[in-house]
Amino acid sequence: MASRPLSLAILGATGAVGRTVLQVLEDRDTPVKSLKLLASERSQGTVLEFKGEELPVEPLKPGVFQGCDVAIFSAGSAVSREWAPKAWAEGCAVVDNSSAFRADPEVPLVVPEVNPEALAGFRAKGLVANPNCAVTPLLVALQPLHRAAGIERLVVSTYQSVSGAGQKAVEQLEGEAHALMNGAEPDAPHQIPYRIAFNLVPQIGAFVEGGETEEERSIAAESRRILGAPGLRVSATAVRVPIFYGHSWSVNLATGRKLSAGEARELLKQAPGVKLVDDLKERIYPMPLLAVNDDAVLVGRVREDASQEHGLALFVVADNLRKGAATNAVQLAELLGEKYL
Ligand SMILES: NC(=O)c1ccc[n+]([C@@H]2O[C@H](COP(=O)([O-])OP(=O)(O)OC[C@H]3O[C@@H](n4cnc5c(N)ncnc54)[C@H](OP(=O)(O)O)[C@@H]3O)[C@@H](O)[C@H]2O)c1
């Protein structure tokens, strides 16, 4: 069923995710009846382009969501907590990109290729949460393997690009790389806690009890919830890398029944949202370079892991701003329009 034309709002339209939402709406040719762009007071006077038309960016104020069907929020958790209930009170459902509601059992957390049925629960709070950008593409790749053979244990290391930490982190890497290549001392880091140019930072989010980070904890919790696998054992290490766009995952897993590498490749080839990029003779495998601006999740280096029973290893890459954030959010808005509004 096609989505009826939606009256949409994009909150955080001037940010890294918000701008990508605009691009994804154009690329998917999502039926849009009207579009409202919202950001902070700082963006007063800013104009953004959509389908050749210039649209003004408006500040948030009461009543702004009236007449909108769906708002895609990408302005951080504090803004979402305050404004999502107000939007729903004005009759507008919210697709939220922040982490504010991802752990709320009354708010569905949805990847359309994995658990679309969960979207039905959005009416409890007029909200659906978009999962963490380190989770959505990973689960698009894992779902076909989980469905076929039951994943029991998952060990994952992430290689997350700076755009995952917002536009200011992109500027930090640009500034540092430019300074270092010109023999100058870079400015003190302002978004990622250490210099990221020519470096790696094995901390994303604050540390929690036991030594994990919030990011690593949400990879585990969100994977269990979305796959419907409460007993899944997960060990995650999340690392920020000096790449502008594209997150990668080194994945090692153990399944309940044996899955050969050939079977896994066949399943991945047919899975919605997945592109199998795996031809060793031709040295073809997923890389961020290949994933940028693609909505697909690239999977390759699929091989059996002989160090454990029923072990498999793979490498996954996706554009964090597209399938990791904007594309999934737009798909959710479309699904709301098709089925529920
Ligand atoms: N980057 C990713 O890969 C990614 C992936 C998934 C989820 N997310 C989440 O999406 C959200 C946005 O991330 P981002 O990377 O796009 O950040 P960003 O580039 O820093 O953009 C933030 C946006 O929020 C707006 N904003 C900030 N404070 C506001 C306020 N008080 N009222 C209204 N608008 C306000 C900003 O408007 P101004 O320009 O006016 O300041 C800007 O449009 C965050 O919650 C983030 O965790 C990001």
How would you characterize this protein structure?
By secondary structure, this protein is of the alpha/beta class. It contains 8 helices and 13 strands. It has a 7-stranded mixed β-sheet with strand order 3-4-2-1-5-6-7, sandwiched between helices. A 6-stranded mixed β-sheet has the order 9-8-10-13-12-11. Helix 1 (16-28) links the parallel strand 1 and strand 2 (32-39). It starts with 5 loop residues before the first strand and ends with a helix. Bound molecules: NADP nicotinamide-adenine-dinucleotide phosphate (NAP). Residues 12-18, 39-40, 42-43, 60, 74-77, 79, 97-98, 133, 163-164, 166-168, 320-321, 324-325 line the site of NADP nicotinamide-adenine-dinucleotide phosphate.
Order of neighbouring strands in the sheet with most strands: 3-4-2-1-5-6-7
The tally of structural domains comes to 2
The major β-sheet equals: 7 strands, mixed
Cα Rg: 20 Å
CATH topology of the largest domain: Dihydrodipicolinate Reductase, domain 2
User: Total number of helical segments?
Assistant: 8
Q: What does the overall shape look like?
A: globular
Class computed from helices, strands and strand pairing: alpha/beta
